[in-house]
Structure to design on (272 residues):
């Protein structure tokens, strides 16, 4: 019976499992490979973008690439490796957006400037990335495995906090807080999009019509007066960009207030 595998180590054999990234850096054995890992990742992303993550199987991927299913196992050990290649490929898009100073970049485009602007621009790019590839929310914790481009993004963001005098744990918590807001808000948007497709609704008004009787019952009960005020008075219910940016700026305002960056450019954490 196979042993349990924890932290990359087989509990029975004690063998360490190498990640796909370690294996890729070893020289290829002859004959020359007919495929590349980049091709595998690109084909898998195309399938997932069109049909969702569940549609990505070794058999389907082999058909897309025009090879035998067993031939794929020369390059990957299974779907987990494929997902890592996919995640790494799409996070490379975020890095390229920074180089070009465009795509989801907000004010000024690139990641130059102070720590707040770097985090804000990167958050907008991450949101755009997830909306282009909604299957990302179905991968590990919505953030992806530890891949080179995923870690490179973290490294860039952590570097933007250098000079503020933050300890390592605080710096990573700042990055994690902004990322959690982005993934949470964007996941809610993706779930709403999926609900609309399921219900055959082309726009939010169509969905409201479908759920009007339930909403009327809730409001007529008189139990939710604050919610009723929002329903009757809110004018930006469908302005997802405005809602997202207000939320993002509020998170950044809170971080800035707690950091209390002083005249010398160092941060003092409230409560420490």
């Amino acid at each position: 019976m196979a042993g349990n595998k924890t932290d990359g180590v087989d509990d029975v054999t004690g063998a360490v499992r190498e990640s796909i990234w370690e294996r890729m850096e070893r020289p290829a054995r002859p004959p020359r490979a007919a495929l590349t890992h980049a091709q595998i990742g690109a084909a898998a992303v195309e399938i997932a973008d069109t049909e969702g993550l569940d549609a990505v199987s070794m058999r389907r991927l082999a058909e897309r690439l025009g090879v035998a299913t067993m031939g794929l196992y020369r390059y990957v050990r299974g779907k987990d490796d494929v997902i890592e290649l996919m995640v790494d490929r799409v996070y490379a898009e975020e890095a390229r957006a920074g180089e070009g100073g465009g795509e989801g970049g907000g004010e000024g485009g690139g990641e130059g400037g102070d720590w707040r602007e770097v985090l804000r621009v990167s958050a907008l790019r991450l949101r755009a990335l997830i909306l282009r590839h909604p299957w990302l929310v179905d991968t590990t914790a919505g953030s992806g495995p530890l891949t080179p481009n995923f870690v490179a993004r973290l490294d860039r963001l952590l570097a933007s906090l250098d000079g503020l005098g933050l300890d390592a744990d605080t710096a990573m918590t700042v990055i994690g807080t902004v990322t959690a807001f982005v993934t949470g808000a964007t996941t809610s948007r993706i779930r709403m999009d999926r609900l609309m497709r399921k219900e055959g609704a082309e726009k939010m008004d169509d969905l409201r019509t479908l759920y009007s009787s339930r909403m009327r019952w809730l409001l007529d009960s008189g139990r939710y007066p604050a919610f009723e005020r929002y329903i009757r008075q809110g004018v930006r219910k469908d302005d997802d960009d405005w809602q997202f940016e207000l939320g993002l700026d509020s998170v950044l305002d809170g971080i800035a207030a707690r950091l209390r960056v002083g005249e010398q450019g160092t941060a003092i954490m409230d409560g420490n």
Observations:
- Strands lie at 5-6, 9-10.
- Residues 1-6, 100-110 have pLDDT under 50 and may be disordered.
